[in-house]
Amino acid sequence: MPDSPPQSVAQVREGLGQVGYLADEAAALVSFLAQRLGKPILVEGPAGVGKTELAKALSRSTGRRLVRLQCYEGLDEAKALYEWNYRKQLLRIQAEATTAAPGSEAEEAADDAGWARTRGDIFSEDFLFTRPLLEAISAEDAVVLLIDEIDKTDQEFEAMLLEVLSDFQISIPELGVIEAITRPIVVLTSNNSRELTEALKRRCLYLWLDYPSVDRELEIVRLHTPELDEGLARRLVEIVHMIRALDLKKPPSIAESIDWARTLLLIGSDDIDRETFQSSMSILVKHRSDIDLVAERVSVKLGEAEADVHDRG
Amino acid sequence: MSTTAASLLAFFEDLRSEGVAVGTSEILDAFAALDEVSWTDQRDFRESLAATIAKSQEDRRVFELLFDRHFFRAAETEALERGIEDERFEGSGDRIDLDELREAIRRAIFEGNDGEMRDLARLAMTAFGRQGERSGVIGVDVQRIRRALDLQAGGRRNDDDQEALDPDNVRQFERYLRRELERATIERTGKLPPSRPLAELDRTLPTSPAQDLTAVHRAVAQLKRRIATLGHEQRGRARGRHVDVRRTMRASLETGGVPLRLRYRPKRPRRPEIYVLCDVSTSVSSASVFFLSVLHALHDSFRKLRSFVFIERISEVTDIFEHERDFRKISERVSSEGGVADVSGYTDYGRVWLEFGEEIAEDLGPRSTVIVLGDARTNGREPHATTFGAIAEHAGRMFWLNPEPKLYWNYGDSVMAAYEPYCDGAFECWTTKHLENFVNVIAGAPTVAD
User: Fold this and answer.
1) If one looks up domain B219-236+270-443 in CATH, what number appears?
2) d(CA A84, CA A93)
3) CA nearest neighbour of B38 among B48, B50, B28, B29
């Protein structure tokens, strides 16, 4: 696959579409800009609107390898950047020590020289554990670096990222600066559970992904479950939208609409009536209080619709 | 410098004055981005600018409003000055026919045609806005225009000849109307609506019950986010951890008995059980709206939370908070089902402690935190401070948040002094900053300096 920057927004959009990601205009445009300008993308939005998926799709469509750093509380540089392999270093030192004959006259002189050599030795790349960020920077091939749920980390970690994000380089005190050979496409995602620092935002292009419109979500559902009857798919998406309009603890995500569509296929129902809905509702709604609310509001509506049909029939 | 560049810079300047942080690097990015897309495509132009400049949703909102004012209003304003004309309504003279417009809107809504709805919303605003002067309150105007247009979801009025309108589309149309009106207001006054009340977290709490509830709610949402991350920060810290000797020794085997790597005991986050007791009597009515919304937010953040409201009696409302998500409904249900007012409607702290002590205190344990929200004004009744002391004894921690300034404590019928010795902390709480301070205290962080 070509690895030159894309020529137009349409091209990016098409590329994403080919690998099964239907991007809206903003997402396609920002992905395009990110590749042209070499800037990281910061994607925010509610859970389950395809933030992580965007990075994966970019990796697939550009043919780049995906390097993923999943963030969590207490993530530190030893897990994100690099770590010295102490054990290996220690073994190396011990091996060195046993080769030098103990008690000999030249021992001290040999020691000094040996130590200098060993020190140069043990702080080399052989003794380095590369973690995702270093891996992405030092990779020979072009990669997509996904830093997932950056809002889960502490501010200190964000500050550490700045060097990587703006200059695409990592300074290791013992080794010097490691610069990126090829510029990675960087995607950061955030669920907005805390405000990110200005410094981080400044270095990124900002993309807000929201729940898609009925039509677009219908397209997405159809893409993933082409066997599903179109009318049924539309009804399904409409119901999902209806549920999202309620004030829930956790509104259903796109992935959950797709899951639901698959479920309907599996159980082979050709219409969503009250019964089907109630039995498969747990795929969409996953909080007890939410389930109560949805059961109450949506089931009633479904009931009304059924009554209408019966009236007419 | 080209005129476009100049007008872009003016636009950035305006954004800055509205509080959007536009730095030089953002401006450079914006120009770099515009080099890559075609300037003539409105959508690309707008999105490129937004991606490089507006880096939060709040910023985006301001951005949209200003963007319209800067780049696409000029043409429209001119069109408006020449009178409302639209090629679709030609033939009906220089004034558009209202009935025709009404019909067109109805059709657009029925078809759910987005672009059409947007254009027609603009027309409707001008057409109906001119008939009478605007009220100045956007919500009122939207409803008036809607009435004038005879729009009803479901089309119940004349079922025979008109098909039902999709309520979603009607709502969408209303949203466009609202946006148009908002824009018009901006244009008229030359000012943006107050856009970021959150920037001033120091605002004092509402003093009248009618004051903007949503603003309080937004502040609480911010607070909630803070509560959510506070815990994280605490857990992420390596400071104050204890070395786990057993695991360190075992790990040292790999390195020939030299303990190169220290193993630490995992720091368990404190999962508090929280009991919140909230005074909802009239003497604290302004604060209780705030306190209720705090409760609402707390319920989302802490799983083990039980809440109570009291005036003369105490009643548990945990269920209401767990089942209702809508804040207004919650406050309605709290006042209708709480059943806490007896005869007088005056707070009786003493009785509340007796009841609480009898019914709930035995559930309390060393891990429970009790938070009382109230002004400690007993209206001259017996405070039963010893009962309160016994409750505090049972609970791990006891905090009191008083909506009155410390200066007023113990004046008149306030008996704060009787309760304070039993509390692990008594705080005045009438600004969001005070509340923040308090949250830091329960989360174990140092207090924010005043």
Assistant:
1) 3.40.50.410
2) 14
3) B48
CA-nearest of B219, B252, B236, B247 to A71 is B236
Residue B144's CB is within 10 A of a number of other CB atoms, namely 16
pLDDT tens, B124-164? 777 765 544 555 566 677 777 777 777 665 444 444 445 66
Looking at residue A271, its pLDDT comes to 78
Global pTM?
Answer: 0.59
Rounded CA separation B143/B2 (Å): 44
In A, residues 121-180, which contact B (CB 8 Å cutoff)?
152-154
Whose tokens are 């247009």? That residue is: B149
Output the DSSP codes for B335-397. HHH-----SS----HHHHHHHHHHHTGGG--TTEEEEEES--B-TTS---HHHHHHHHHHSSE
Chain B residues inside the 8 Å CB shell of A94 = 256
CA separation (Å) from B20 to B8, B26, B71, B210, B311? 15, 11, 18, 30, 45
Largest pairwise CA distance in chain B: 97
Identify all chain B residues contacting A32, using CB atoms and an 8 Å cutoff: 36-37
Please give the ipTM for the structure prediction. Answer: 0.79
The first and second tokens of residue A119, run together, are 């020190």
**What phi and psi, each to the nearest 5 degrees, are found at residue B264?**
-110, 155
Count A/B contacts: CB-CB distance under 8 Å: 97
The rounded distance, in Å, linking the Cα atoms of B237 and B14 is 41
Among A27, A17, A57, A68, residue whose Cα is nearest residue A206: A27
- Parse chain B into domains and list their residue ranges: 3-81, 87-189, 219-236+270-443, 241-268
The answer to whether residue B49 scores a pLDDT higher than 60 is: yes
Distance (Å, whole) CA B138 – CA B237 = 48
Residue B313, token pair as written in the block: 């009696």
Contact at 8 Å (CB) between A146 and A56? yes
